[in-house]
Amino acid sequence: MDSRKLRTIRPSQQTWRNSALELIGRNEEQIRQINGIRPALKEVVASCGEHLGVALAVIILRDKGITVRFDNPSQALSNAGKVVSGLQSDLVDWLNSTNSGSMINDTSLRSANVLQPCMPCKSIVAPIMIGGELLEGILMVANQPDTRDFTQDEQELLQAIAKNVSLMIDARFDRMTGLINRKEFESVLEQSMAPKHMGKGSHCILHINLDDMQKLADSVGYEAVDEVVRQVAHVLDNDVKDVGPVARIGEDEFAILIENCPADRGWVVGQEIRRAINALNIIFKRPIKLTASIGVAQLASEADTIESALAAAKIACIVAKDRGRDRVVMYRHNDALFLHGQEQMKGVDAIQRALRDDRFLLYCQVIKPLSGNDPSPHYEILLRGVGDEGTPFGPNEFLQHAEHNQLMPAIDRWVVTHSLNELSRYRQQLAQTNSLFAINLSGQSICDESFLDFVVSELDRTGIPPKSLCFEITETTAILNMNRAMKFMTELKLKGCRFSLDDFGSGLSSFSYLKTLPVDFLKIDGQFVREIAEDPVSNAMIAAINQLGHAMGLKTIAEFVEGSAIKTQLISLGVDYGQGFGISKPKPLAEELELLSRLVKPLYETGNRYRD
Prior knowledge:
By secondary structure, the chain is an alpha/beta fold. Residues 1-10, 107-118 and 603-612 have low confidence and may be disordered.
């Protein structure tokens, strides 16, 4: 029997076109109201299959691990499973052969069964494209070989639907990494928090934030940041086992949902991810040592909302950064005050109000000799924000906003003024003990032509001995603003101030530029210090920096000294000073100055011979 006689009866051309337009319109409405990519694709496939009256409709997105199919119960395609699996295995070859167009596979044509030589069927296959580029994805409809031929109208309709599918994907996936984006992650999270899923046990959310990406962008370029993000995404999506969907939810932020996961297991997975990121061997103009701060929050109650769940994981991540970065922190309920304070400091108006109302605190952290004793106390002054409840919080969040909105000179002026005001109350003690207090300065302040005059004026106003002050400038800032940095440093050096080159080893030309900068201390970048006990490359880098610094008559300071193993290794290399939680935690500046005053008070009582 001639198979063409078995064609189904079609409605009128106009009726068919109207219903096709209605179908496309429904797809477009789904794009606007999409609530999860998989449910939306299922609806697209089902409506497409029903409208065309086909036996099988399927969407395959191989690079995203998604296959969604519709089987018509009234006219099932024999061996439909083999047809789909064959398409999956031959997908790339087929996409290359289509030249971005659609293909009709029809038994009436000489090219019959091009795709499925062993599976006779009639089909239309349309590629799914984003931004003019082919994905590893197709939309296919198929019938038994003895049904009517597909028409050009149906081919064009399938292409239109494939385009709508591509819009759905673009709305819910990150182009650069291929991971789902924040919107899609929220949809997945909403489904997982439904009572029928929460009844099976608690879930965990991990919030992952890559450390020091702005510093990397400043020193190497944003292309390096993009490459780092791509490689981390690949590790999270392919190398981390037994986790749920991985999403890119920000420029350098990722989120992972782990269903039916107790809190301790979530923390263990976080540590595995942290180590996997540490182990990445990324070279972009120079080797890039990468770390990440990770927050873990547990969802054990149906009362949790999407917003509170995501916020809890982010709070824990912020706490991880505030504790020194490159660590995993579990969320605790009282950490919410921490985030609340930081949220108050976001935005230009909020930071300006904080400056006006003095909603900042000055802390300091001691810098200690690693070998022997140094009678001269050495500290770094640190900045903290103050929440409505008076709770202090770290600067990571609000400094990013200040940097972006060119507010760093105002913040640096606040720090210089208030630091010198505090120190001026103890001028004699500072002089007697040879204490040294380091103040961090941003690149924006170094480039501000009036900032040098401001610092000189504040020194004159407060009468602080210049030898008691050390200004910390990052290596990247010094290199990128060499002329201004040289002028600033030279003039204050003549007055007796000292300088420390912060984050040394992170820039492109550390060794070649070092001899031209009038610095006294090299602060070795913490990314090397953290790994010194485990990573031979980090060990070698610190040894080289320390040797170079000593050859130039400079003292070396290791940041982020967090344990005895790190400290022991630094001592063996001959590093002069250490700073970090493993040595001393930050304290309020006023409290440390008061302690310093009590220590030297007996000397003043014995007479004037110890005074300057």
